[in-house]
């Protein structure tokens, strides 16, 4: 099966147009939402990465030792390895590249665009 690109794009538009746009989503979230199995992981990952700097902003998210989502940094951003992070579960931890996941957020301009599109769509329905 080929990568359903338009389905992924539709999903991203929908998520960005939410009253509270979806933030820090992962490749797994996209796979699950579209009903794709894990074999699409790499392809979806590179598809999303190509949008980095345009529709999306790719980030790395630190995880606490109990795998709770922690602070996010831009993918290329250097993280101070001496800095101690504190999780709500009371664990303290340092930056460890092995304990990070890649997450995506929408760029401001993409959110604006999609929110405007949604507004003009709902206007059409009311008329
Ligand atoms: Zn934690």
Low-confidence stretches are: none
Number of folding domains?
Answer: 1
Could you state the order of secondary-structure elements as H and E? HHHEEEEEH
> Order of strands across the widest beta sheet?
2-1-5
Decide which structural class fits the backbone. Answer: alpha+beta
Shape: globular
User: Into which percentage range does the β-strand content fall?
Assistant: 15-25%
Helix content: 25-40%
What does this structure look like?
The protein has 4 helices and 5 strands; from the N terminus they run αααβββββα. It has helices at residues 5-17, 27-34, 41-49, 108-126; strands spanning 56-63, 69-74, 85-86, 92-93, 100-106. The strands form 2 sheets. The protein has a 3-stranded antiparallel sheet with strand order 2-1-5. The chain has 127 residues and is α+β, with helices and mostly antiparallel strands. Helix 1 (5-17) crosses helix 4 and helix 2 (27-34) crosses helix 3 (41-49). The longest helix is centred in the C-terminal third of the chain and has 19 residues, at 108-126. The chain has one domain. Residues 64, 66, 68, 87, 89, 91 line the site of zinc ion.
């Amino acid at each position: 099966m080929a990568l359903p690109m338009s389905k992924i794009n539709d999903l991203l538009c929908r998520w960005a147009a939410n009253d509270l746009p979806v933030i820090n989503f992962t490749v797994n979230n996209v796979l699950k939402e579209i009903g794709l199995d894990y074999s699409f992981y790499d392809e979806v990952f590179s598809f999303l990465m190509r949008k980095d700097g345009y529709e999306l902003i790719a980030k790395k998210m630190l995880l606490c030792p109990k795998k709770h989502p922690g602070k996010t940094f831009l993918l290329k951003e250097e993280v101070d390895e001496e800095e101690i992070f504190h999780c709500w579960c009371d664990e303290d931890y340092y930056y460890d590249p092995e304990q990070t996941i890649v997450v995506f957020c929408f760029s401001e301009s993409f959110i604006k665009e999609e929110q405007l599109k949604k507004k003009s769509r709902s206007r059409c329905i009311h008329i």
